[in-house]
Write a structure and sequence with these properties.
The protein contains 20 helices and 6 strands. The chain is elongated.
């Protein structure tokens, strides 16, 4: 059944019908379509546009259809044009003329818009719960390793000593911001478009606030053109999901490196690794690699949405049917990645001795050596130069700052004394960085508690 066929004298060709159809992907919104229709029919009855008796029959009929779909007694027809057409056709088949009254004061344009918003609001909550689970794991593991020394990097070069807990909580902050973005996105989509009609509202005496209240929307759209042609919320959600994937991809990249023999900072559980078909020694971080790879898919969904919407005049255009596959794929991909990544991180074995061994090389305590001189009164630039000369000397002699004899220190700067060895100790270098946001163990524990507490609000 085509809702619009009265104007046409020829049947739609199968090729055109298949090309035009959206049932293959919008059928996932059957609950939201039924919820929206129940609320719409109740409003029509309350406003006297249809009788309350008809409104009640429509509501009962729609609830029966929902129960039949969910129990498997009613299969969604893949030949239907879209989920809206299928449900209205089924309702009409069951109720006759009463079912035909449902679409009074409504267009598919505002019907589609309300369905998508209802669906995406739920998805924001579902994705948020998965991000919260990941953030919880990050905080627990950070507390476990609040004192585990590792090298911090810039340009992938060993830079300064930090703790593994501090490193993990950097991702914790990223995912906490992701939760805020999802929450903000949901707030902006929490305005109901139903009642906008095709583009110009309706002459029927509807009360949109009734429908908004029944559907648990915080408000209604104030411009009918915008109500049916806005897809900012799809783009914004795809953007928030893309940023989540950026963070997951960066984290995955580090885990992939840390698993390698060149680092060997961590080892993934066997349940989250795979082997090679030819090399029996291999243990590959395929889950992390797949997460990293799937980020491009979500970015593509965002770019697809932006490209579809950029040149569309007001109001609705059929191009906008392309919104659903893109945003649905982005949601599905992010949920799948979070579901796989979180237990992988939770079961990951950390190898502290390898982290500390790496931290002992690379002169990552050089800044602390310079700071030692500054605290003794030497200007920072002079201290920086002296320390650079010490590093060059160590490289020449095959030594480290810890093993360089004191007399060699004094040849470069006579301010040095035995205290320098304590000042450049790796634990002291990391643990004494108590400035707010720094890697000292107390900061790590406090920040982990703060992030965990934010999940319970």
């Amino acid at each position: 059944m085509q809702l619009w066929k009265g104007r046409f004298q020829k049947a739609l060709s199968k090729t055109t019908n298949d090309f035009n159809s959206s049932i293959s992907f919008d059928s996932r919104m059957y609950r939201e379509d039924i919820e929206g229709s129940i609320a719409h029919s109740k409003m029509l009855g309350e406003c006297g546009i249809i009788t309350k008796e008809d409104a009640e029959k429509i509501g009962e009929g729609l609830r029966a259809i929902l129960a039949d779909i969910e129990s498997g007694r009613l299969a969604i027809d893949p030949e239907a044009e879209d989920i809206h057409t299928f449900i209205e056709g089924e309702l009409t088949a069951r109720l006759g003329d009463t079912g035909k009254r449902l679409h009074t004061a409504r267009s598919r344009n505002d019907q589609v818009a309300v369905d998508i918003k209802l669906y995406l609001k739920k998805q924001c909550d579902e994705v948020s719960k998965l991000v919260e689970k990941l953030l919880q794991v990050i905080c627990v593991r950070a507390e476990e390793h609040a004192e585990t020394i590792m090298p911090g990097y810039t340009h992938l070069q060993r830079a300064q000593p930090i703790t593994f807990g501090h490193h993990l909580l950097a991702y914790g902050e990223m995912f906490a911001r992701d939760l805020q973005r999802l929450s903000d996105c949901k707030k902006r989509m929490d305005v109901m478009p139903l009642g906008s009609g095709a583009l110009a509202g309706t002459t029927y005496p509807i009360d949109r606030t009734i429908t908004a209240s029944l559907l648990d929307f915080g408000g209604i759209t104030e411009n009918s053109l915008d109500g049916v042609s806005d897809r900012d919320y799809c783009i914004e959600l795809a953007g928030a999901l893309s940023i989540i994937m950026v963070h997951l991809s960066r984290f995955s990249e580090e885990i992939i490196m840390w698993c390698s023999w060149e680092f060997k900072f961590v080892e993934l559980d066997d349940a989250f690794s795979t082997g090679s078909s030819i090399m029996p020694q291999k243990k590959n971080p395929d889950i992390a690699e797949l997460v990293r790879g799937k980020s491009g898919r979500v970015f593509g969904d965002l770019m697809g949405l932006l490209t579809v919407m950029k040149g569309i005049p007001l109001a609705y255009n059929k191009d906008m049917q392309e919104d659903k596959e893109a945003v649905f794929d982005a949601i599905d991909t992010v949920k799948m990645c979070l579901t796989a990544f979180t237990p992988m991180l939770d079961t990951m074995k950390v190898i502290p001795q390898n982290m500390r061994k790496a931290a002992a090389g690379g002169f990552i305590n050089a800044t602390d050596c310079a700071d030692y001189l500054v605290k003794k009164g030497l200007p920072f630039r002079d201290a920086y130069k002296a320390t650079g000369e010490l590093v060059a000397l160590c490289i020449e002699k095959g030594l480290t700052l810890e093993t360089l004899p004191l007399e060699e220190y004094k040849k470069i700067c006579d301010i040095f004394d035995e205290g320098v060895y304590e000042a450049i100790g790796l634990e002291k270098c990391a643990y004494e960085r108590r400035s707010q946001g720094g890697p000292c163990p107390d900061n790590v524990r406090k920040n982990a508690e703060r992030l965990k507490a934010s999940l319970n609000k």
